[in-house]
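Protein modeling request. Please complete all fields; requests missing the sequence field cannot be processed.
Requester role: graduate student
Desired output: 3D structure, token encoding
Chains: 1
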Amino acid sequence: MTENTFKLKVGLFGIGLEAYWEQFAGLKEKLESNLQFVHNRLSEYGEEVVNLGLIDTAQKAMEAGHTFRKADVDIIFLYITTYALSSTVLPVVQRAKVPVIILNLSREAAIDYASFNALKDRTAMTGEWLSYCSACPVPEIANVFRRAGIYFHEVTGMFDDAVCWSEVKEWIEAAAVVNIMSHNRLGAMGHYYSGMLDIYTDITLQLATFGGHVEMIEVDELSSIRKQMKTPDIEKRCCYFHKTFDIGADCDSVDLEKAARTSLALDVLVEKYALGSLAYYYKGAPGTDNEETIASIILGNSLLTARGIPVAGEYEIKNAQAMKMMDAFGVGGSFTEYYAMDFIDDIVLMGHDGPGHIKIAEGKTKVRPLTVYHGKVSRGLSVEMKVKYGPITCLSVIEHNGKISLLVAEGESVNGPILEIGNTNSRYRFSLGAKNFVNSWNSHGPAHHCAIGTGHITSKIIKLGTLLGIETVVIC
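Delivered output (476 residues):
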């Protein structure tokens, strides 16, 4: 896949009042040092930081807005160093037109009152107080933002407050996912599974919400590319399959070679269209090239998913979006639906036929031969895997009444018997209990697919939804 060259850029500026600098010696230098501390902390998260320094006049604010816009920043952190006029803030954010996070951070937990009050010079005392005065202008700025229709979020705490910096890090991670989605090229290959009305989607709405591009791709092209693959490359890919998967002894070598050929062809297709994700389905007619292509696609699609190019079956574009977001957060995102309920153990069995996210598998992913793909044409090799035991997050992209929203739930992947049918499947436990989870999840009308990732990342997804301007519904 062609790497996204539009890397996340984080904007940073501090604010102050120009009139203070002549009145209070050393105040500006102290505040600039504080701003540099914030800059250094933001830089620790590995993203480029565009720091415009202290903005202390309305004129500088206008110039800063243009600078941020030219720099193409994705998110702005406003560090409030001391009291400042809201006119030094509004022009910056208005012109930049990106989300803004207010950092109301103090150097220390409290002023040393005894030392402060021991100062003999009241001017010096005022200057010292102003270096702690970050909370003062926040209501003024919040008021102006609300009246201007600008969404903001405030982080309040201290320089050494781990909770604050964890929240800041999550905002940056969420902004990075927004950036990835806005440049993602999603391939849509084939057509919808006939009759699955819940998965049909408004592609224009998807692009309006997440950005990116959808490339319509013909299965015929993949079939044509398959024919061009060379025997040495096919043999090498078969060896890679044996290294990556636990291939059952009952898997036919001819089927493995077909899967290798298709896997290589998929790599070519992905490179040609610079795909970052893929949704596919094709009914096919018995005995055609396209039937063999689709029947042998699962292993290759699993490899793509593990490479950060998630592949959703049944042409589920909405879920390809959910899988891409989960993968962009670094937690996987495996294609999933309900399988069954276990009322004895109070768990929900979930999985899907087709590709799995083998990077988040519990142990090595098995390859099984199937004499029939249930509900689909042909036969071939499939993958069987469980998601790693431990905390998991479910994400679904919902489309209702011309709007997109996110549906999230946290649970746990637990050990126990699964259905050894050559599909991805796991056992999930939720704090609500199996009955209440299913009832609550379904009440929001999601499609029957979702993306499963490892870890609990609801707080990050909420921030992602906020930055995208869409609702995030949390089940548990």
